[in-house]
Amino acid sequence: MKLFTKLAIAFTAIVSVSANAAKPQLEVDVGVLTTENGNVNATLTITNNGNGQQKILAWYTDLEEEHIFKVERDGIEVDFYGPHFKRQAPTEKDFIKLKSGESLNKTFELSSLYDMSETGNYQVTYDVKSFHLFTNKGQLNKAEKMNVDTLTSNSVYLWLEGITSKGASNKGKPGGGSDSGDCIDGTCFTGRCDNGQKTEILSAFNAADQLTNNSVAYLNSHSANNTSARYETWFGAATSSRYNTATAHFNAINDAIDTKPVTFDCSCKKTYYAYVYPTQPYKVYLCKAFWSANEIGTDSRAGTIIHELSHFNAVAGTDDVVYGHSGAQNLADSNPVQALNNADSHEYFAENTPNQN
User: Is 308 a catalytic residue?
Assistant: First the structure.
């Protein structure tokens, strides 16, 4: 992936400081690169400039283990979304040993664990402190054991353009906004969505809104006595009752997109597109196939969002009767009632590929 910096300025590295009398001669350097999709990659280098071996607790060299960076936006520290663990006291196996002149190098993506979604001037610093940073303190005296070890780096400054500046629209959802956690204009994120994923989700969500608006407009301009190939392909022969059900479903999906506090979770590693828990609106878990799909078209990201929203009991309460274009078409022909209970049928009606009037 092509990387480029955005006004990233790194000042001279600060040598580590420890409250212990014998200060480890560790130097820490941080560099930052931003990607074209808005992700922020930080490179951490810890070098032993001392004459002998130096130790550092491994937990404090891994963003999956500890909150190791201080990230500020316009002088205010941003939220950290990573884990906080309860552990036993460290043992020797928990320490990394660096020979004289040896360096440890690691790279971390920051926007999935720190709130870097808003426009502003950001400052990134490696900044950790612990009673056990350089030793397990099993053999130290009482006074030494009470000393807090610290280790800091240079600070890197960069300007980031917020995700909302890239086209996200404010749908006016209740309880939304960045003040209510990892949310952007009422759409929230869990499962460590990075900036690139958030941008893609917001774009797909907007596309889903457009597809749903089009579906509602179609249903309002037609009737059970005046359907067309588009309706009949996915929902079969119409009756007033069945047509009203389709209309109610899409009105509910449209309302969920426009007014409900929808949350997207990026933690799923399965090969599926997405999943939800029907009794737990309005959280949608996005899986691997979602990220490789086109934004619109057959089995698209936008269509997937419509499919999943239809599953919620508070929306349309659909099931997965059949999957795929041919299966949905056959279901419409053989059992229109079940077609109206099938999530893929709703998705394909909204995607309308191939295009039918």
Answer: yes
- Counted domains in the chain: 2
Inter-CA distances, 35 with 2, 109, 166, 200, Å: 7, 10, 14, 14
pLDDT tens track for 46-69:
999 999 999 999 999 999 888 999
For residues 325 and 210, membership in a common domain is answered with: yes
Beta strands (DSSP E) in 68-197 are: 69-73, 76-77, 95-98, 103-109, 120-130, 149-160, 183-184, 187-190
Give the CATH number, domain containing residue 325.
Answer: 3.40.390.10
Residue 174, in any domain of the structure: no
Question: Which of 160, 195, 228 marks a domain boundary?
Answer: 160
Residue type (1 letter), 257: I
List the catalytic residue out of 27, 66, 200, 308. 308
Pair 113, 63: CB distance under 8 Å: yes
What whole-number distance in Å separates Cα of residue 304 and Cα of residue 281? 16
Are 147 and 263 part of one and the same domain? no
Residue identified by tokens 């109206």 is: 340
Q: What is the tens place of the pLDDT at every residue in 65-105?
A: 889 999 999 999 998 888 777 677 788 999 999 999 999 99
Strands 183-184 and 149-160: unpaired
List residues bridging with 32 in a β-sheet: 42
Scanning the structure block, which residue is given the tokens 């506090």?
Answer: 261
304 in any annotated domain: yes
d(CA 185, CA 165) in angstroms, rounded, equals 11
